[in-house]
Amino acid sequence: MNLLLLSNSSSDAGYLVHAMPDIQELIESLPQGAPAVFVPYAGVTRNWDDYTALVASALADTGLDIQGLHSAQDPVAALEGAAVIIVGGGNTFNLLGHLRRQGLLDVVARRVRQGAAYLGWSAGSNLTCPSICTTNDMPITDPEGFDALGLLSFQINPHYTNAHPPGHRGETRAQRLAEFCTLNPAMPVLGLPEGAALRVRGDQVALVGPHDAPLFLGREEPRVFRPGPLEIPA
Amino acid sequence: MNLLLLSNSSSDAGYLVHAMPDIQELIESLPQGAPAVFVPYAGVTRNWDDYTALVASALADTGLDIQGLHSAQDPVAALEGAAVIIVGGGNTFNLLGHLRRQGLLDVVARRVRQGAAYLGWSAGSNLTCPSICTTNDMPITDPEGFDALGLLSFQINPHYTNAHPPGHRGETRAQRLAEFCTLNPAMPVLGLPEGAALRVRGDQVALVGPHDAPLFLGREEPRVFRPGPLEIPA
Question: B49 catalytic, yes or no?
Fold first, then answer.
């Protein structure tokens, strides 16, 4: 497998700018004009055409030929022909629900296992996990099942932070993840901070970017990984 | 109907302390020792016996005879006999899943429509809505459907705030609710700030506490309600 999973799309530098060196490395073996499919279904308040145009513009320097999955006459054929599958952020429930109802989850998972490169951020990173049970998103629509692509053997929590608005009496992020780990004591969860990414080559996983990342498992104290190879397989 | 729906359970004053005058008013027509059932299923990292004991201790001055639903030999009979149903906060998905799998959602809804008082906070307030689609909680378990008690005709977003940790690139609360309103343009959502509550008598709803609360509907600018009677029916 060949995946790049970002926590976030935007930074002070602009849209996807902070990730461009890693994106270029992800696709370095591909020829100019390689076909890529962008999955915009996490977008709710943004129009899918606009979202696809935004991503195509941000990735113009890659030379990829990017098509929105929503505009493909035959979505299965588009995915079968794609050298790169790009899944954008937004609402994870909306993303998963659209792919499930169109019967495309298995197609995406198979294509990535066959070697198509996968670029995701936020909801698009969560989608590669066994389930979407560690998303931060609001459950605005029922995806009719929480199981996802299952390309990774562990969960990601994107936008990881334990900061908390002053005066807020709701749960902290660490408390939310402790709840998940209580119900799922054998499932690791990696907290992926803003600006961080995971790079998956085969079954090797590396933490990319300047930040450390905590791994939560059951009732254990979180293990903090430094950037570099992780000791957990994909 | 006779409901008191709190945003949060704890404040600097202690557990449920800020809400005691409103809780006393909710149950003022009941005799000393009236039977009450506490539903602890939103608790994930806390033991249900401990959670029930915490709530019983906090409500000792009410004179209610409080039993945990999890310890009832016949949960349906316990709910049928309860003058007050109390639903605590925690994880909304866990709460809804347990009630659905035990077939108790309809029993709770019917008892409240028949006149049993209902006291809820956080997840326990969300449960009275048409669905749990406006919870802030992490979807740590699939409740096998997002529809809830449907006692209210609108959605609540508890712990409402639009504050945002510095450096966070995820969605703001207003953005999350805008996503819900995009997919559900006819469903109002009331943002219930910390320290606020809704008091429902029959189909009359009032905002209780010192804070204003915004009502979101479709793409309209949010309407801000002052404490007092609301112009939306239960």
Answer: no
